[in-house]
Amino acid sequence: MKRRQFLAALAGLATGWPRVASSRDNPARIGFLAGGAAASISSASEIRAIKQGLENNGLVEGRDYIFELRFAAGDYQRFAELARDLIQTGASVILADAAGAASAVHQLAPSMPVVMIDVDDGDEFARLIELQRAVIPNGASMAVLFNPSNPPDPEFPERLRGRAQATGLSLAPIGFRSRDELEAAFAALAHQPPAAVHVMLEAATGDFIDRIPALALLHKLPAFANRPEFAAFGGLIGYGAPRDKLDLRAGTVVKTILDGARSGDLPPPPRRELWVNRNTARALGLTIPETLLATAVKIVR
Q1: What pLDDT is attached to residue 260?
Q2: Domains (ranges, CATH) in the chain?
Q3: How many other C-beta atoms lie within 10 A of the C-beta of residue 89?
Q4: pTM
Q5: Cβ atoms within 10 A of the Cβ of 217, count?
Q6: How far apart are CA 20 and CA 98, in angstroms?
């Protein structure tokens, strides 16, 4: 399901949610069920942005809400346990940054308002294939790194295979769930390097958004990913909706739910952005076409 379709479905579920009163004596409990690790750079950034989004909407932590955080640290089998824990805290609404997290909450409490911060979108990877062709026109292969524990991800490489082959690219899917498996994946790629590596970043693998570009550069592999900020960490190209904007939007969605949201009240998702790292391109001996640079929202120099 495409991101916009999924968010539209969530908007439909919002119809009729009752207003949740909060006060200094009775602040609302807002749950956050995350797939990554609490100590990761990605989780820390996400929490800051969500809190900023809540503050932008007049909600002050401790006065208007209490933030209940639960982290699966890559173990998606824990979602049911963590979701149950959040529900038992008396959460009024739960934020989820993984499809499995949202599903776990819905199965335990179908009427619980759930805000899915982001969803995997195959259209982003189709665009990334086009970007690889533009930057590496003579490349004939691509590897796709994905998390096999995240329900939507395993089917994506096969869905993309046809698109890749249509542009003359062979596609090799490689699963990884942990830092050790990530290191092993790049070590294996070194024996028969593809023209480029595409990384399907999601809640758990987003914890490695800084390590993946370093490994890609170490092995002289152009790396593309579905988060624009990937380029800021040293990846060649990132394309997708900026994570901070998605998290800020989540704060607005939570506020509308607490006020009694209707289907037309929820803000639209942020636009996708293209970020390019020219330093990385130079290090790899690649030239980014000027026509592509002209469409980039951010160029890391």
Answers
A1: 86
A2: 3-118+243-258 (3.40.50.2300), 122-240+272-300 (3.40.50.2300)
A3: 14
A4: 0.90
A5: 18
A6: 25
